[in-house]
Amino acid sequence: MLPYSKKVIEHFKHPRNVGEIKDADAVAMEGSPACGDMLKISLKVNEKTHVITDIKFESFGCASNIATASILTEIVKGRTIEEAEKISWKQAAEELGGLPPVKMHCAVLAVDALRSAIEQWKEKHGLVDKKPTTPDVLLRKLRNVLNPLTGASIVRMQLLVNFDVADGVITIDLDLTPDHKFAAHISGEIHEKLDHLWDVKEVRVNFVGEPES
Amino acid sequence: MNEIYLDNATTTQLDPWVLEEMKPFLLQEYAAPSGHFGYQASLDAKEKLEQARATIARSINAEPEEIIFTSGGTEANNLALLGLARALKKPAHLVTTAIEHESVLNTLKALKKEGVEFTLVGVDQNGLIKLDEFKAALRPETILCSVQLVNQEVGTIQPLKKIGKLCAERGIGFHTDAVNGWGRVGFDVKKTNLSLAALTAHKIHGPKGIGALYKRKDVKLSPIMYGGYNEFELRPGTENLPGAVGMARAVEMMKPEHIEHIDKLKRMLWWGIKKDIPWVHLNGSIDRGAPHIINVTFDYIEGESILLHLDMQGIAAATGSACFSKALEASYVLLAMGRPHEQAHGSMRFSFSRFNTEEEIKRTLDALKGIVADLRKLSPLTPDKEA
User: Fold this and answer.
1) What is the domain partition of chain B in residue ranges?
2) How many structural domains comprise chain A?
3) How far, in Å, CA of A52 to CA of A142, rounded?
4) Which residues pair with B157 in a beta bridge?
5) Of B211, B203, B206, whose CA–CA distance to B231 is shortest?
6) Which residues of B form the catalytic set?
7) B323: which chain A residues are within 8 Å (Cβ-Cβ)?
8) How far is B135 from B139, CA to CA, in rounded Å?
9) Are the CB atoms for B173 and B143 separated by under 8 Å?
């Protein structure tokens, strides 16, 4: 028995809205092939109504990756960008009939890629200001980094025991041991969320958890 | 069960003839073989167990009393490494490669807590052990080197004779995890200067739950489980006679013509892939690898997706992608061979047995062509979507 719902398999077998919009109003790429998943989303948005008139995706990734991207494009097509950016990864996963905890990060990636594309569109249209990366921004950015062991957010599970933003250097201490099964994965996800921010020079992730005796 | 099974490096179909050989020892002749002075049925069982032991010993040019039955390859590797280190009772050092099976690597990690150090030796781009690095890793306190016969993911055959000679010259013990080579890649414990070797039945059409450790007569081990005095006081528990009989029959049934057959299927699949699918790489060597394993990277796409699509068409294979791993990490074997992460994610392992047919390989090739093309249409990395 596959660990996936019928709907995940359906979207994996027949993904909707595949490809790239040639004269897109915004294009965003999230993830990287080195991490094993990567998503590109392109958008057409009506300037007056803010309605997403077309959306397409391309994916280098596993079944969950393809399925979450596919269903997300279905959900947001015809909606305004304001509605679309409110959709959470949990909603996307629920629409698919759930995902295994270890695959929840695929839903996060899909939602992040959509939000990046929307943010880009808003930037182009002068709808956002460049905000400095404050601790609040940091927590918001990391809210969607999940521990694949539980499928729950590292922020919500209070795994961030310490964090600090100073002169463009972000230091994060996690209450996980360095030999935690998913240490490399979680650290990679954190870098992915923070490294590209305009005022961030360096991100240091420390695993400070005590080994269980 | 999948119609086309190309995951024979994980496990194989039990040969019906092997099952026939085992049946009497499950149904009528179920007496335990332990006793030297038991009733007739027990003595008969003992004789049968010793015959199986002798058959297995012969297959690797060992003596019967050098074969200890275990529950499989994992236990054999555990017994070899833990047993040897614990028998020595002094600070020790072991040398192994970065691409060993987890039953070697994780056993060594566990031994670290008992004060035993180990060094991982790297491999080249084909997965062959770097001999210079290996020599440099050897220390005065090195007690054992553990190098596999055949790699479980890419099929690389290690130069065990050379390594055995280097160990023998220095008085260092030599263990091999021969689980993925036994029966398919010839090896001789004497010519290879082996002290220990792990074997398993279920990868050569024998039953699951039985394996063996070859232990040269002069090698001292501590048991790792405690109980009765079976298996030369090294492995307690009632002997698995049906398993032992099946294991012996399985190795007897591995014939040169089977090896030729699987080697042919392997080449047929690889040449077919190479001819019809662009942007592919072979991980390992077609001519110098084991006859039953090939590992191929399909650029720009991810292995779990390939695996699922193959599965939907009734074909079973394996992948080195992180998405398929329990730890979300790409194959450590391919990374150790210097493959970048994205190539490891796009890797597929196909492994063959004598029950596979040329027709199955043709169907697999057809399926692969379609699947790879479809997934590449979906991938943002594919350079030329028309190709």
Assistant:
1) 16-252, 255-378
2) 2
3) 27
4) B150
5) B211
6) 323
7) 36-37, 61-65, 103
8) 9
9) yes
Q: Do A37 and B381 touch (CB under 8 A)?
A: no
Q: What is the pLDDT of residues A89-105, one digit of tens each?
A: 899 999 999 988 888 88
Q: Among A85, A100, A124, identify where a domain stops.
A: A124
Domain final residue, candidates A104, A124, A144: A124
Is A157 in contact with A142 (CB distance < 8 Å)? no
Q: What is the separation, in whole angstroms, between the first and last Cα of chain B?
A: 35
Binary contact (B380, A29; C-beta < 8 A): yes
**Which residue among A9, A21, A27, A35 is the active-site one?**
A35
CATH label, B16-252, candidates 3.40.1350.10, 3.40.50.300, 3.40.50.720, 3.40.640.10: 3.40.640.10
The tokens for B329 are 């990490």
Angle between helix B241-252 and B40-59 (nearest 10): 30
Residue A42 inside a domain? The answer is yes
Q: Do B308 and A63 touch (CB under 8 A)?
A: yes
Please say whether the structural domain B255-378 has been given the CATH code 3.40.47.10. Answer: no
User: Does residue A162 form part of some domain?
Assistant: yes
pLDDT digits (tens, 9 = 90+) for B49-99: 999 999 999 999 999 999 999 999 999 999 999 999 999 877 899 999 999
